[in-house]
Amino acid sequence: MTNMHNFQDPRVLRAIELVWREAALLDAKDYPAWEELFTDDGVYVVPIDPDTTDYASSLNMIFDDKRMRHMRVERMIQGYAPSAVAAARTVRNVSSFVVKDISDTAVTLRSAQILSAFKRNEFQTIGAELTHTIALGETADADRIHEKVARLINSEYAVNAAGFLI
């Protein structure tokens, strides 16, 4: 089956819709709702090595399980952390979806993200290749992110503190 045919599969459409919903929640700074999009054993990773697949044994900018995601969300909403004070306004464009794997229980997608941020009168643009593994539930409302990997195109170079989630 070619990739174009995969986009007619309702499981793939549900996975893409979840990725877009995630982007909208992050742009709206609705971090508690974003946190709820993940499975209990889900991970959120921003690796430094652009080729690694062994995140647990690699150096990462972010490698969050449920507990660490919750702590990150608390810092973002408390207002005391530098990342939360005057947090950047963001707009994400997620596109160029490629279906990597489909089963009755999960869909893995790769996509491109351009994130535009504005903070303290400065614009910042961040490009990333995203890989999402979506655990499919009984209904689309029950679908959850099992793994999100955001590979920044400049991950091997200095990355400014963002003040937002990738």
From TrEMBL:
One of its GO terms (biological process) is 3-phenylpropionate catabolic process. Coiled coil: none annotated. Keywords: Oxidoreductase. It holds the Pfam family Ring_hydroxyl_B. The keyword Transport does not apply. Gene3D superfamilies: 3.10.450.50. SUPFAM superfamilies: NTF2-like. The keyword Oxidoreductase applies. One of its GO terms (molecular function) is oxidoreductase activity. Belongs to the bacterial ring-hydroxylating dioxygenase beta subunit family. This is Aromatic-ring-hydroxylating dioxygenase subunit beta.
